[in-house]
Amino acid sequence: VKNTTVPNLDDSMNNTEEDEVDVVDLASSSLLNKLIRQSLVESSHRVEVLQKDPSSPLYSVKTFEELRLKEELLKGIYAMGFNRPSKIQEMALPMMLAHPPQNLIAQSQSGTGKTAAFVLAMLSRVDASEPFPQCLCLAPTYELALQTGRVVEQMGKFCVDVQVMYAIRGNPIPRSVDITQQIIIGTPGTVLDWYFKRKLIDLSKIRVFVLDEADVMIATQGFSDQSIRIQRALSSECQMLLFSATFEDSVWQFAGRIIPDPNVIKLRKEELTLNNIRQYYVLCESRKDKYQALCNIYGGITIGQAIIFCQTRRNAKWLTVEMMQDGHQVSLLSGELTVDQRASIIQRFRDGKEKVLITTNVCARGIDVKQVTIVVNFDLPVNQLEEPEYETYLHRIGRTGRFGKKGLAFNMIEVEKLPLLMKIQDHFNSSIKQLNPEDMDEIE
Ligand code: ADP
Fold it and tell me: Which positions does the motif Q motif occupy (predicted)?
């Protein structure tokens, strides 16, 4: 038993927490995504572009050289191991670096190179010889601001005189000292405080304004209004850029209010599909019974790595203990862990240190562990009304059609839950076959 991967199993937590269904918090799942990101996310779609002036020529670049960047910036990009612009960067970078500067709203899923793109724009517009804030980037949380700051530091490694300041709570600065750093990254509340109350930043001198993670931002109470108040204090010459991983109507509306005369770039997300997944269900009487079925599956087929989803923390813990007692190498990922702890558990799993990852809904989305061959729904995803959560089912089991390998999925079902499974089957119009767990030969 490795303590690092099984937190607090002995802690007696109160029951309400134990029964808690882990909800996905946007900011922490975005942070987790960044922490575990290893490379660019590919997309088979074309980038859609909507120019504010449709008659102006549309440039795209295939190399970073074409952008005529400062030597030290180009060096920084290559030192990060980037060889060529990502799909979204091909279109976004020429717009962002154009003269005169153009405003941009860009949407593409996380991992497609948005952060690298706006960091590049900020670094290329900064005048290192001038000691005052020139670029302002708003982020939804302290941790996300720090992540962006790290990218600035990496990419700006050879831009020796450029400095970053974090406008985040708990980062006090003496009243009398001027801010000499050229790039400010912070949360809306603190930036507003530094500007209005403490007069530390002159927003009229900002040349590049970035609003990152707009979808997460608007989900946080007060941040939309604060961001708009900040934007109103910028000069009309300031370049304004907004990024989002998703684009519901609410994000569009906000983007439209905060970014004047924008170009718009969109890259559609790779759709998840159940087409290349063989799905099975096993009828069970009880939790113990489900566990037995799971063991039979384990005994019956060769399994690389598996992810097992439970609906509550309590079930997840129980299953973890059972499997460990039977000698399996298991790790448990659930909502009471910090994002850093989650990231390290996922990393260990990716490195093959454990073969089974047991988790609640915290892990349902966005985690892409390529070597996973089977996914088990120890409990079906249901909402409080006991209706199936179709999206969650798809996110747990589905793979992208183009990049995904074939996969196997097992649903452990109490008899009374069978109608829910049938609804899921109908919803996706894909077949889920019954399996007799004593007879694994049925799995072709
Ligand atoms: P997003 O902001 O859309 O989530 P990032 O800018 O963080 O995406 O990029 C995702 C990952 O891809 C990061 O690890 C980043 O270092 C890397 N990356 C970004 N642009 C490129 C590129 N042009 N070539 C190679 N890797 C890149």
Answer: 62-90
